[in-house]
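> forwarded from #structure-qc
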């Protein structure tokens, strides 16, 4: 059991018959009344974000997780196969668990898996940036380089991003996995 004083970003809790990760929190001490904690929680299965307020007397059920470094190998039907870098054991992961990060995954990429005490995979953490090749990009029109906007492009994994006008198909770009935004050419 954890209390509201243990709340921190990244804490994984059991809440309303689901597993949630705390994205943001704010301890509030009003002039009158009892203090409370405002939180934003993300459902680990559905990805939905909800706001919730905890009283200081509330108890939380903390989910203990371990991080394991794994390497993405390939897709096999409805499963994605990952390998443990130390034991070389391969484990298939359901597509539901991977659906939020699938557009960033490339064969041979190292990721960190959050695994509960029960052995179920809760989440997959990607590196902060990835390098992907642009598969399709809108053609460049003369005179567009003066504006600050960009053009639409699709990477080799199917990720749709906005890139500057000078980026063409076949070039490699660095992408921020937290926001899905173009950073620079690689």
């Amino acid at each position: 059991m954890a209390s509201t004083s243990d709340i921190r970003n990244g804490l994984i809790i059991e809440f309303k018959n689901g597993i949630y990760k705390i994205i943001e929190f704010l301890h509030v001490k009003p002039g009158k009344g009892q203090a409370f904690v405002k939180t934003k929680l993300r459902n680990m299965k559905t990805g939905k974000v909800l706001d919730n307020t905890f009283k200081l007397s509330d108890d939380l059920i903390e989910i203990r997780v371990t991080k394991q470094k794994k390497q993405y190998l390939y897709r096999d039907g409805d499963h994605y196969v990952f390998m443990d870098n130390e034991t070389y054991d391969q484990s298939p992961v359901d597509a539901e668990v991977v659906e939020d990060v699938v557009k960033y995954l490339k064969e041979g990429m190292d990721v960190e898996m959050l695994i509960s005490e029960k052995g179920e995979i809760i989440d997959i953490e990607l590196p902060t940036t990835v390098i992907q090749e642009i598969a399709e990009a809108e053609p460049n029109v003369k005179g567009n380089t003066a504006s600050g906007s960009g053009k639409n492009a699709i990477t080799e994994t199917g990720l749709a991003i906005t890139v500057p006008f000078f980026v063409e198909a076949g070039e490699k770009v660095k992408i921020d996995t937290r926001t899905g935004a173009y950073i620079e050419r690689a």
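QC bot note: Residues 16 and 43 are 10 Å apart (CA to CA). The domain at 129-185 is CATH 2.40.50.140 (OB fold (Dihydrolipoamide Acetyltransferase, E2P)).
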